[in-house]
Inverse folding.
């Protein structure tokens, strides 16, 4: 990405020096010019030979020259108090990394340059967790997989696409927007979906999992058409921000779900050794073998026996209920999965438990 030319103006010389030095040392995407007086600032802004992409200034250094200047992003450096100036504002008294991200987000929104806030260098895999069996531990395994991958240093995004979203029960509420904003963007013609993903995502510092707060209403996901949902998945891949996107689906199996699952790179299908669970998964496997349009889903599917023990594995193998399908991973009953909140603080233990599943991704 080409260098972003940023001008920072603040009469607080100590603050300005600290911020400028940080940006020069840690952000090689910037060309930085800084000013402490209005006179020198206005002279620089008024010179049309100086290319400026972002100007960030305090209210005391504001001048009409800035208002009329052809600068994509004009940002007021605020101390958190109210101002009547009609500019986007950023609190100057916050961590430098967050401060820079806020400014870059304003710039990206003004220019549509998503690359300003995204590395875009990942070959993103979309991994769906789906099971026709209720109570299979699907959400637990989806979150555990996201956590295990993030623990390996992968950039991971978790999205709960269930009609009744349970993200709040697993992950802390982020400080950004919600899936409502993202769904609206997907439905808006010409809107920048990738930028909305970046703007609304929250990365939990304890788990390194990125996610977006649930929609305001659980019914909103029903308002997305099949084409719109597939467009959202495609945008995640094109964005290149994440190594893996984990999508947690509900148990409904329909023509629309078939179309969506076909867009996955891998489908993790958990079930348990209970008789009803085995019967349902057997019917599901039989269904996959009956229709050509389901062949791709079958080839992408990884069947996982959850809550297993030696006896249940042996019984399953001898029953022949799954036909020729191979169980790729057995997840034993473990205290790690007893409480999802505890799971997210289990460190290397979750890596050990989920190792076989991670190998398939």
């Amino acid at each position: 990405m080409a260098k972003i030319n940023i001008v920072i103006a603040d009469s607080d010389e100590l603050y300005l020096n600290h911020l400028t030095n940080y940006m020069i040392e840690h952000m090689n995407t910037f060309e930085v010019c800084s000013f402490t007086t209005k006179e020198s600032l206005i002279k620089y802004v008024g010179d049309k030979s100086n290319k400026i992409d972002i100007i960030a200034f305090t209210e005391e250094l504001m001048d009409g020259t800035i208002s009329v200047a052809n600068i994509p992003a004009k940002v007021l450096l605020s101390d958190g108090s109210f101002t009547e100036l009609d500019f986007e504002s950023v609190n100057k008294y916050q961590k430098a990394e967050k401060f820079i991200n806020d400014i870059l987000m304003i710039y990206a929104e003004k220019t549509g340059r998503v690359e300003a806030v995204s590395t875009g260098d990942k070959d993103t895999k979309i991994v769906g967790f789906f099971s026709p069996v209720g109570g299979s531990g699907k959400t637990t395994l989806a979150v555990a997989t996201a956590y295990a991958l993030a623990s390996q240093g992968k950039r991971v995004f978790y999205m709960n696409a269930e009609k009744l979203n349970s993200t709040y029960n697993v992950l802390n509420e982020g400080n950004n927007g919600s899936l409502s904003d993202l769904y609206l963007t997907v439905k808006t013609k010409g809107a920048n979906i990738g930028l909305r993903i970046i703007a609304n995502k929250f990365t939990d510092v304890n788990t390194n999992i990125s996610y977006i707060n649930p929609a305001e209403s659980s019914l909103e996901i029903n308002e997305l058409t099949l084409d719109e949902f597939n467009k959202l998945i495609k945008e995640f891949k094109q964005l290149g921000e994440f190594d893996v996107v984990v999508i947690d689906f509900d148990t409904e199996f329909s023509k629309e779900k078939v179309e969506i699952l076909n867009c996955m790179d891998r489908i993790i299908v958990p079930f348990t050794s209970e008789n009803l669970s085995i019967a349902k998964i057997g019917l599901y496997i039989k269904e996959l073998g009956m229709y050509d349009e389901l062949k791709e889903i079958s080839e992408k599917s990884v069947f996982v026996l959850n809550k297993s023990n030696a006896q249940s594995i042996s019984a399953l193998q001898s029953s022949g209920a799954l036909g020729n399908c191979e169980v790729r991973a057995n997840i034993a009953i473990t205290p790690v999965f007893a409480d999802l909140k505890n799971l997210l603080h289990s460190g290397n233990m979750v890596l050990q438990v989920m190792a076989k599943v991670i190998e398939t991704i």
Q: What stands out?
A: The radius of gyration is 25 Å.
